[in-house]
Structure formats: structure tokens, C-alpha cells
Amino acid sequence: MLGxxxxxxxxxxxxxxxxxxxxxxxxxxxxCDPDRVGAFAVVPERLASGTDDAIFRVFVTLSMxxxxxxxxxxQQQRSLPHAAMLALADASYMxxxxxxxxxxxxxxxxxxxxxxxxxxxxxxVDCGRQPGARCHVKDASRAFNRMGDMGKLPTSAWLxxxxxxxxxxxxxxxxxxxxxxxxxxxxxxxRFTRVYRxxxxxxxxxxxxxxxxALAPGLTPWFPExxxxxxxxxxxxxxxxAEVFLAPGEPKTYDAREQWIREQAAQLDLRKFRPNLRRYSxxxxxxxxxxxxxxxxxxxxxxxxxxxxxxCPDCAPDIxxxxxxxPQLGRTRPL
Length: 335
Description:
Blueprint: H1 3-17, H2 34-37, H3 44-49, H4 52-63, H5 70-79, H6 82-89, H7 91-100, H8 109-115, E1 119-121, E2 124-126, H9 136-144, H10 152-162, H11 166-177, H12 181-192, H13 200-209, H14 236-245, H15 254-266, H16 286-293, H17 295-300
Antiparallel strand pairs: 1-2
């Protein structure tokens, strides 16, 4: 099966089974759903208004989706108490903690990112600058429960973007820099990759979540001034699906995989699935591929293909995670 055929089958499966059911119109995005993310859930009305606290919580909540499978991250978010969520994803708590703390590295994003040496050794999170002292960065690292310096991410984000003027200042700067809503989305992605431990994939997820109405109608406060329909999120499932069809010797880079998605999107007319969609929207192509290829997510939804021993009539067997000889597409690793 050629790449365009497989992608077309995955997209058709997505719009038949998930879009308008548990994603897209008529459903809450997972980052607004307390049943899926617990105390991290953003109040929809506040997100629709684009308040600084809602945007900050979305940013940190999405930033947790790296290095582990989605279902594992969601389970972790549901299990964390409200106090742990505050240390990670509450803008007011972050402001208060930074203001009250006496550590000199918190004076700027640059000094914090370069000089804060919080780490995890033997399961204990601490730092060499003020060992034993209570600190919201250490609390955040414990809540992340990964490598010790992950707790720096929320503070880095707040110092860079929320400290002086919040999102209104950031957006105003971007509006002035470029008149194209599509290029503005790219500028914002570039800016958010400057946050400690945030890469291109996570920054793209974040910007597109707030600027692509097809993903979350009514909950994309940056649209239409920022238009994320042409952004491309390349997660592990998308990357591995692309590698099935990329010619031997082609580079296995983010750029190459993103270009492959754009080529697939150019051959699809999304209006045949929903007449109100744009014909060409690269952001809406990796979404179905991720949903189709993620075995753990499909199992968690009670997918009909769990335990199936034969190929479905409308399957994309080259990338189906339930096919015995399929590549391991369901795991998640940082790109």
C-alpha cells in the first residue's frame, strides 16, 4: 500500500470513528476534561477567553506529553493532587513562588535556565545552590517524576512569557512582526521552543491547539489572527509511519517527516469527510495517523480491533499496530 493510500485509510478511519465522537466537534479536548487529566483540566470558558492562567495551564499540561505514552501521562495527571498541579501549571502560584523565593537565579529566564542546577540523584530531587531548601522548582520536578531538571520547564515558561505582560504582549509582538496568520503561527512555535526542555513537537502541539478550530471548536482563542491549520505535529507514531514509506536513504529528520505529511495532505481533500473542513490542512493529517497507530490509546478506548487476527476491510495494514508484523508504532519516545 502506498503512503497516500495508507494515510487516506487512516484519515477515513479517524473521521468515521473518533472525530465528532471523542475529538473535535461536540467533545472537550482532553486538556479540558477532568476525567482524563484530573486537576490539570482547564475551564473551557477561561480557555475560550484566552486568559493568561488558562493558556499557561494548557502549555504545561501539554508539555508533560513527552518520553512516555499518552495513556501513562494521563494516568499520572489524574493521580496528582491539586497541590502538585499548582506547582506545575498554575500561573498565579508560579508568580507568587518566584516573587517570594530568595534564589538569585530567578531574576531572569536566562540566569535561571543556565544556573539552576536542580537534579535527581538516587530518587531525591535537590539542588547544589540551596540544598534542602523548599522550592517550587523541586516540587515541580517531583510531580513530573522524570529526570530532575524537568521541573525547570514551568518556571522557564513563566519567566520568558508570563512575567512581563503575559500572552497579550507576546501576541502583539507577533502581530506586528508578520501580517500572515499562518506565518504568525510559525513565529510562535519558534518562540515557545526557547522554553527549557520544550522542543518543536511540543511547541507545535501547543500553538496549534489554540489556533486550529477544527481540533477544538470554540476553544481556540488565537484564531483567526493566528492560524495553525498548516502546522504539522510529528510525534513518534507519525515519525515511524513516515519511515515506512520514505525512500531508503532519505533523512530521518523532523523536517523530512514534516514534508512527507505535507505531501500526503496535498493529495487529500478533507471536505469529503466533513464539508466544513478546509480542503488542505496539514495539521489534520498527523492527528488521524497518531490516533490510528497508537496501540495503547486504541486499547484504552476499547477499539474493535483489539484481539483481531484478520485485517479489516478498510485497514491500512502497513501502519496498523494490531497487525502481527507491523512496526512498533504504539510506543512514545522523545524525537
